[in-house]
Amino acid sequence: MATEQFQANFRIVSGVAKEFWGRIAGDGLLAASGRVEQLAGEAALACVRARVRSVPRDLPPTGA
Questions:
Q1: Which of 16, 19, 58, 64 counts the highest number of beta carbons within 10 A?
Q2: Is the backbone of residue 62 left (phi > 0), alpha (psi -120 to 50) or beta?
């Protein structure tokens, strides 16, 4: 889970940097690509957080 969180956060940061560079360079396509990457990272992070919350901590004993 920590690896997925790190990857999602890295994707967000790289998306912000790409969007910023696209705006500075005047390249709308690069800026849009950075925004898409940033949103994908935020979605991945939300999925990881949802999975962490839904994992039961104490499993009931199995058997009859």
A1: 19
A2: beta
Gap between the Cα atoms of 28 and 18, Å rounded:
11
- Cβ(15)–Cβ(38) under 8 Å? yes
Rounded Cα distance, 8 and 51, in Å: 14
Locate the DSSP E strands across the chain: none
Is the pLDDT at 64 greater than 60? The verdict is no
pLDDT tens digits along 33-51: 999 999 999 999 999 998 8
Asked whether 14 and 44 are in contact (CB, 8 A), the reply is no
